[in-house]
Amino acid sequence: MIRVFLVDDHEVVRRGVAALLESEDDIEVVGEAGTAESAIARIPALRPDVAVLDVRLPDGSGIDVCREVRSATPGVACLMLTSFADDDALFTAVMAGASGYVLKQIHGSDLIGAVRTVASGQSLLDPQTTASMLARLRDQATRKDPVEALSEQERHILELIGEGLTNRQIGERMFLAEKTVKNYVSNLLSKLNMQRRTQVAALAARMKTDRDR
Description:
This protein has helices spanning about 10-20, 35-45, 60-70, 85-95, 110-120, 125-145, 150-160, 165-175, 180-190, 195-210; strands at about 1-5, 25-35, 50-55, 55, 60, 75-80, 100-105.
């Protein structure tokens, strides 16, 4: 038996979803809540298999509930249910530990299938959504620490720029043609999203200071 907890601030929606799910022999609705506070208090005590969470709640977000519930009771699978297709909310929900994200316009049979899917430990994210999520994570990581995107050679040149060396001097130090160094510097500026060599030098100086601490 799949034990389900429903969270939605509209009682009519909760009753409709509860009636739909309870019409199935293998699903039991063990509790309901209309607010984030009530959900966070009740779900860990009832330990359902699946929590169906509305994204928008009067006192917070279903995503916050998901994060709290997953932290307190990792065995509960969270299925986000929302009226709006929102990429930011989807991203945040998955980062909070949600196993799936479906729109309220979903057919009843599909919602039942979604509950069974996440209850079995699977994810409801389709390949396109997963690819988008991974691209966004990579983009965030690069923006957080752009130096991670540099090759070993580019990092070495970054350090030498920080020492105040010209392209010619860097070429002599690294046994590279001056034109090759110039190309490396252009790539550096592009990857670091900078326009001037002085910005690169300032970054290199900050990095050296951090290492020396």
